[in-house]
Q: What sequence folds into this?
């Protein structure tokens, strides 16, 4: 029994160090905040502009050496309530992926939200397309009530290598918050 009591602090320190290393890997994007996050309301659609999310040097090198990079974007819209839990109005999850072709020195860009793919010849164009949402259609305005307050939360998960979505990845996927903003619909 006394051996167990002597090992508990050592096990706790080892687990804390392992968790610290794990969370450090997932928080590399938090050090460089995005340059912009805007919610644009139109008469029919609500758009968002977010990013660019800064990629690490390791991910840029991996993309230039032939490893696919995937950005899994999550946008959540909630109605803000004062005395009750916020109601989720809508949620969008879409994937943007850059697949390099080392022979032709091009990158195939695919977008799961539109199904459109295109090729670019410059790695900087591929990185900007992955990490930046420009006037992205988010929600139909008819689903929202005029004069109510809504919260928008954008999160991105970056995957290096072949991306396979599965139920267990949702349990360990923390991602990085790109932006969070509240608006009152005029």
A:
């Amino acid at each position: 029994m006394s051996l167990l009591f002597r090992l508990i602090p050592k096990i706790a320190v080892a687990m804390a160090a392992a968790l610290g290393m794990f969370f450090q890997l997932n928080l590399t994007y938090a050090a460089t905040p995005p340059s912009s996050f805007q919610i644009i309301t139109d008469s029919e659609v609500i758009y968002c502009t977010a990013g660019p999310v800064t990629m690490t040097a390791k991910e840029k090198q991996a993309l230039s050496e032939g490893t696919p990079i995937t950005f899994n974007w999550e946008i959540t819209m909630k109605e803000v309530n004062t005395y009750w839990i916020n109601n989720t109005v809508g949620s969008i999850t879409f994937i943007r992926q850059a697949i390099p072709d080392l022979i032709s020195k091009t990158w195939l860009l695919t977008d799961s939200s539109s199904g459109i793919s295109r090729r670019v010849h410059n790695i900087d164009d591929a990185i900007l397309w992955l990490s930046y949402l420009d006037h992205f259609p988010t929600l139909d305005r008819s689903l929202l009530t005029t004069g109510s307050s809504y919260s928008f939360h954008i999160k991105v998960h970056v995957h290096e290598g072949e991306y396979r979505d599965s139920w267990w990845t949702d349990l360990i996927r923390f991602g990085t918050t790109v932006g969070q903003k509240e608006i009152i619909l005029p």
Residues 30 and 115 are 30 Å apart (CA to CA).
